[in-house]
Design goal:
The chain is an alpha+beta fold and 212 residues long. The strands form 2 sheets. It has a 5-stranded mixed barrel. Helix 3 packs across helix 4. The protein is elongated, with a radius of gyration of 27 Å.
């Protein structure tokens, strides 16, 4: 009888240890998944560090002034792709000025003002006046915008006011934040900008009304 009880106890202990190991394995996997989910969410966050004064940015009070600005060569409705690359280049070699920008591919859905170089639909590369840097092992990214510009978000639609750059052989977003307007109000960071800048908010309303 004692031997039978010892065998039963041994089997029970074996089953108990097996359950504990299984529970520990599931707990470890759950914790790892939670950490991975947290990291992925945190890695999507962008911290903005203003890198220059906005005082020199020419303000446009009305959409018509911006639309008919001679320096604006192209106005398009476009969808932003996920293909974007940071680039540092020498803007003025004489005094050693460098610029940090993002080269971003956009799919042109409709041409609103043309310089005869572009016909929709097509994909072009534009220069955004901002620079995004990955934080490395630390989750998240840091954005260094020119003026109050905010990087256009992949998958969303915008109206872009663009000026041709011979130096870069690409179209640049004109007038910093005044050259990009989200359609549909789905760009949350642009909505934050609207809340902060009354002039931008009213200008955007006029632009959307002009091209509705």
């Amino acid at each position: 009888m004692r031997i039978g009880k010892m065998e039963e106890n041994g089997e029970g202990m074996t089953i108990g240890i097996g359950k504990m190991r299984t529970l520990f394995a599931f707990s470890t996997i759950s914790v790892c998944l939670m950490i991975a989910a947290w990291y992925m969410d945190a890695d999507r966050k962008i911290t903005v560090r203003e890198s220059g004064s906005t005082a020199w940015v020419i303000p446009y009070a009305h959409a018509e002034d911006l639309i008919h600005e001679p320096a604006v060569h192209l106005i398009v409705k476009a969808t932003v792709t996920s293909h974007t690359l940071p680039r540092i280049y020498e803007a003025d070699a004489r005094i050693g000025i460098v610029r940090r920008v993002m080269f971003t591919d956009i799919h042109v859905d409709q041409v609103l003002k043309s310089d005869a170089k572009i016909a929709a639909p097509t994909t072009i590369t534009i220069v955004e006046p901002t620079y995004i840097e990955d934080n490395g092992f630390k989750p998240g990214k840091t954005e260094y915008p020119s003026g109050s510009y905010r990087k256009a978000e992949a998958g969303l639609k915008y109206i872009f006011f663009l000026a041709w750059s011979d130096k870069l052989q690409s179209y640049e977003v004109y007038a910093r934040h005044q050259g990009k307007f989200n359609l549909g109000g789905t760009d949350l960071r642009e909505r934050e900008l609207e809340a902060m800048l009354e002039n931008y908010r009213s200008l955007k309303a006029e632009v959307l009304q002009s091209f509705r």
